[in-house]
Structures are given as structure tokens and as C-alpha cells.
Design goal:
alpha+beta
Length: 352
């Protein structure tokens, strides 16, 4: 009697592995079948599009060979096509159609495109237009200005129009402080430096500071972060001679936009609003028809300021330390002999 061959038992782990392999084979088979269906459908759509385009090309070719598509029946209320009678162009042999008044509801007519002549060999190319030169300022030079007086009586000069690491402007690859700081005490009287008209008074003043672009992004960021209270209180005055004066870090402004002031009239009180380390007045003078000056990239990236603003003037080119009520220099801290980027000596030592 023959013995049956011995069959070795299969472990559970091996059975699970075989089942897993079978499932993977079935999964790949289904994926291949689905991919084949997609390819067949895409090929069908491609052939249909090719056939449709070929039919249209054939029809267009037939019309171009002299065949007529036949008269088109007029549909009541339909808008005539361009080139047909009643479509805004004159009918053959007839007068031009009258204009539609203010044009409301009329179909816009295409603008004719002027054909550019083809240059023949040997002809010189059309010269490019000469760029318009930047006009020179028409306002007087700062040294020629008159009628200015110190806005803060007495006190000390605590900051010059000079290089500063935290400066707002870039001049000759240096950051500079674009105004003149004078200080007395908190609440001291601040007067107008020149006759003029008030343009801004408060914390929303930047639109009148001579930037080269709108400040929508800047103010949107301020409103989004609710940081308006961190800005200084500023009075901006149009001096009526091509220049503007800005009085920054006030504690209170006592004027409003539209007010007309004379030199010496009260416009506010000394304070430390905004980013100020103590009570003082930052006086800024800028020329509205002067060249553009570049703003430090930090403020453009972080605060979304525009990239340029009008030329800032060293107030020492207009004001003198020999004038009545002029501030005094702090011993050991002298102003720069050259105003940054302007290439001119400061004038406080030479003005009478």
C-alpha cells in the first residue's frame, strides 16, 4: 500500500502574505484597466475635436472660393452685425446712419489699427523718442527764503539733519534723520515757522508729506493692526512758497485743516507723541517741486511706505542760531558741516 506524500502545514503568517500579494495584484489590474479606459476616452475626444476643426476649415474654404452662404433672415429685436445696414456703418450706396446720442446701449465700434510700414532694406530705423527731461525746481533755493522763524522759542538743539542709524531716508548709502529736533519742556508753546495754510493736524497726516505714491497700503496696515494711536500728532502747513513745514511729536494740535496762520501763531504744544524718547519738537522742511529722495528699505518692507518722498531740506539752510529766540547747541555736540547728500555747508554759521 502506497503512502500519500506528506504535506507540510502552512503558517498563518505565510497565508496572510499570500492574501496580501493577491490583493495587490488585483489592485494593479484594476488601475491598469481604469487607465486604459481614460486613454481611450481622451483619444476619442481628440479625434472629435480634430474632425470638428477640419469641418470648419472646409466650410471657410468653401466660402472663400466664391460660394455665398445665402441671405440671412432678419430676426425681430436682433442687433445687426458689424458691416450690415443699421449696425452703425453706412449701407452700400446710402447715407451714414445717425449717431445714437450719448451712446447708451450702442455696441462699441472697433478701433482701426494703423498698419506699420515695412522697412525696406537700406532704410534707417525710426529713431526712438527722446525722454522728457525732469524739470528743474521753480521754487527759490533754501538760502533765498525769507519770513521763517524758530517754531520753538529758546531751548536746545537735540537732533540734527545728519546721519542716524534709525534714519528714515537714504542718502549716499547712509540713513539720515530728515529734520531738526529742538527741546524745551512738555507743554511748551509751538508756533508756525512761516505764514501758510494748515493741510493736516492729527495722526492721519502722511498723505500731505510729499510721498511719490498713494498711502492706501500703509493706512490699511495701520487700521488692520489698530496702531493709529502709536503715530505722532503732526501739523503740516503749506508755506505758500513751494515748501511745506511739518511739526512732529506734538502733545496737542490747536489748529485744524484749512486754517490760515501767520508766522508765530500758536499751532500746538510740545509733546512726545509717537516714537519719541522725551518731549521735543521735530521740525521738518521739504520742497514740493524738489527731487525725490529714497526711503530706507526697512520702512518700505515693514510699514508699506512708498519708496520715495520729496526733497527734505536741512532747516539750518533757512534758520539761523543768531535769530531771536533761537535754540542753543548742546556743548560738545556740534552740527555736521556738510548737510548729508546736498554737498553744501550748513549755513547756521554764515547767516546773519
Amino acid at each position: 500500500m502506497r503512502r500519500r506524500p506528506f504535506r507540510q502545514a502552512i503558517s498563518v503568517v505565510e497565508i496572510r502574505q499570500r492574501d496580501q500579494q493577491a490583493r495587490q495584484r488585483r489592485l494593479w489590474r484594476d488601475r491598469i484597466l481604469a487607465l486604459g479606459v481614460v486613454l481611450v476616452a481622451a483619444a476619442s475626444v481628440t479625434f472629435a475635436v480634430i474632425a470638428l476643426v477640419g469641418g470648419r476649415d472646409a466650410a471657410s474654404a468653401g466660402l472663400g472660393n466664391g460660394s455665398s452662404p445665402g441671405p440671412i433672415a432678419a430676426v425681430p429685436g436682433a442687433t445687426p452685425r458689424l458691416g450690415e445696414p443699421g449696425a452703425g456703418s453706412p449701407a452700400p450706396g446710402g447715407p451714414a446712419a445717425p449717431s445714437g446720442g450719448d451712446g447708451i446701449g450702442a455696441r462699441p465700434q472697433p478701433t482701426p489699427i494703423a498698419s506699420s510700414p515695412i522697412e525696406s532694406p537700406g532704410t534707417s530705423p525710426t529713431p526712438e523718442p527722446t525722454p522728457t527731461p525732469i524739470p528743474e525746481p521753480t521754487s527759490l533755493e533754501p538760502e533765498q527764503l525769507t519770513g521763517y522763524q524758530w517754531p520753538l522759542s529758546g531751548g536746545r538743539v537735540s537732533g540734527f539733519f545728519a546721519q542716524r542709524d534709525s534714519g528714515f531716508l537714504m542718502v549716499d548709502k547712509m540713513r539720515i534723520h530728515e529734520g531738526l529736533d529742538t527741546t524745551t519742556f512738555c507743554g511748551d508753546r509751538v508756533g508756525a515757522a512761516h505764514d501758510g495754510t494748515v493741510l493736516a493736524a492729527g495722526r492721519r497726516f502722511a498723505r500731505h508729506m510729499g510721498f511719490d505714491a498713494p498711502l492706501d497700503d500703509y493706512y490699511a496696515r495701520v487700521d488692520r493692526r489698530h496702531t493709529l494711536f502709536q503715530l505722532p500728532i503732526v501739523v503740516v502747513i503749506d508755506d505758500g512758497n513751494g515748501y511745506r513745514s511739518a511739526y512732529v511729536h506734538l502733545g496737542v494740535a490747536s489748529v485744524k485743516p484749512g486754517d490760515v496762520v501767520k508766522a508765530g501763531d500758536l499751532i500746538g504744544y510740545e509733546g512726545m507723541s509717537g516714537h519719541a524718547s522725551g518731549c521735543h519738537l521735530h521740525y521738518e522742511l521739504f520742497r514740493m517741486d524738489g527731487p525725490w529722495m529714497r526711503i530706507a528699505g526697512e520702512f518700505v518692507r515693514r510699514d508699506l511706505y512708498p519708496t520715495h518722498e520729496r526733497e527734505r531740506i536741512d532747516p539750518f539752510r533757512v534758520l539761523s542760531l543768531k535769530q531771536p529766540d533761537a535754540p542753543r547747541l548742546i556743548p560738545g555736540i556740534d552740527p555736521p558741516q556738510i548737510s548729508p547728500g546736498l554737498g553744501r555747508p550748513t549755513v547756521h554759521l554764515k547767516r546773519p
